Amino acid sequence: MIKFGKLLATLVTLISTLLLLACPSQTGVNKKQLPVIAITQIATHPALDEVRQGLIDGLKKRGYEDGSTITIVFKNANGDPSLTVPIAEDFARMNPSVIVPISTPSALAVAKTTKTIPIVFSGVTDPIGTSLVSSLERPNGNITGVSDQWPFEAQVTAFQKVFPNARRIGMLYTRGDDVSKIGVDAMTSLSKKLGFELQLLPVSQASDIYPSAVSLFRNVDAIYTGIDHLLLENMDGLVKASREARKPLFGGESGSVEKGAVLALSINMSNFGDLTAEQVTKVLKGQNPGEIPVAVVTNGDLLVNRAAANEFGLDLAALQNSGAKFIDAH
Q1: Backbone phi, then psi, for 171, in 5-degree steps?
Q2: Rounded to a whole number, what is the largest CA-CA distance in the chain?
Q3: Nearest alpha-carbon partner for 241 in 263, 218, 257
Q4: CA-to-CA distance for 216 and 132, rounded, in angstroms?
Q5: What is the DSSP string of 251-297?
Q6: What are the pLDDT digits (tens) for 238-274?
Q7: Are 222 and 169 in contact (CB under 8 A)?
Q8: Which of 101, 168, 212, 253 is the most buried (most CB within 10 A)?
Q9: Based on the number of CB atoms within 10 Å of its own CB, is 60 exposed (0-12), middle (13-18) or buried (19 or more)?
Q10: Binning pLDDT at 50, 70 and 90, where does residue 32 land?
Q11: CB 215 within 8 A of CB 201
């Protein structure tokens, strides 16, 4: 009787094992079959984080939810450009359905690493100038995306409308940074067109920013922060120098205003992320990235830091009537 019991137990175990092998768990099957969306960005920054969240929300809205119908993997270079290539290489080995690099440095690293995995970049200001695509209408290869063509002229015009006496504008930029150079070139051209004096001062590392801003504020009426990741990651030094000099700091994205800049004409980054989700969805449905035109966003919202605006005695009611949106921070 004992032998029969042992034999019966052995048979039950064997049958259970065979059934498990023949019918793997539904969870395991789903995980293997879920498309993988690999997202990377150059740094933690309010504007970049907003793009990423807008992307995730936009995918969910279109039926692609993390853990349910897709798997999202995220890696952050944490402000270190040297980490962009190792991250891209990790993603290439992973062989996801789509790679979404947010920011120009991340996009360049991913594009250099793989010529086969679909790429949908986001937050790249000049995809043609940086050789990511051959044209906006037909990018070719395995890549497409969304470009944020910063409305430089609209940004300066909006600032000068609020601060009409600011005729000398200073601008810090990172030495040797191709992305930062886009802003420098745009502002140099605009200074001739709009008739303001532009003073440029290069920086090389984060520790340069505060003392350079202090020095620059002595000679200008205001400082503008352009497309420069080093500056955007280290806004505290610029804001501190601005408050000490009692002169305004203005920028081109929401993160600057959240950290203390008085105002910015900023692209809506959540909408930007949603548009990126639309591009990713097209790829997931089988379209060739190289045949999907690069989407370009140029419009922006006037954002005002309420505390900074009060410090400079600005007319908040007039700003609100002109369509400004207030940010209650710092």
Answers
A1: -150, 120
A2: 103
A3: 218
A4: 34
A5: ESSHHHHHHT-SEEEE--HHHHHHHHHHHHHHHHTT--GGGSPPEEE
A6: 999 999 999 999 988 888 999 999 999 988 888 899 9
A7: yes
A8: 101
A9: middle
A10: low
A11: yes
